[in-house]
Specification:
Layout (H helix, E strand, L loop, with lengths): L8 E3 L5 E3 L3 E5 L2 E5 L4 E2 L19 H12 L3 E3 L2 E2 L2 H14 L4 H14 L1 H5 L1
Antiparallel strand pairs: 1-2, 2-5, 3-4, 6-7
Helix pairs in contact: 1-2, 2-3
Length: 122
Amino acid sequence: MPFLNDPIMKIHGNDKWILVNDFIYYDVGQKIEIKSGFIHDLASVPVPLNLIFRKHGDHSKAAIVHDYLYSNQGLVSQFKRYTRAESDEIFHKAMLESGVNKVKAWFMWAGVRSGGYFAWKN
């Protein structure tokens, strides 16, 4: 299983979540460990698309991993740093591993590929 466990979260301020347990995902043997206390926004969905894609759902675990990778510009250990393209590909793969249907996963992946540049830089 690529996800070692399920994330436990609670609301943190306005439109943010905080992870209250360590959450672990494996990407081809590379451990991506997200520590308790990580603050994220789940999926950053533009307002016009909120009727189609929600901030949370079957894609939530993948969104947490993606938010974490973006927050560190892909750095997961002293030996491994993912590029933005690799981070987006992990998001896509993790969604499929979570049971997200292929069409939804593709659209969400396409959204981060086309609109994630500034989030990656910040």
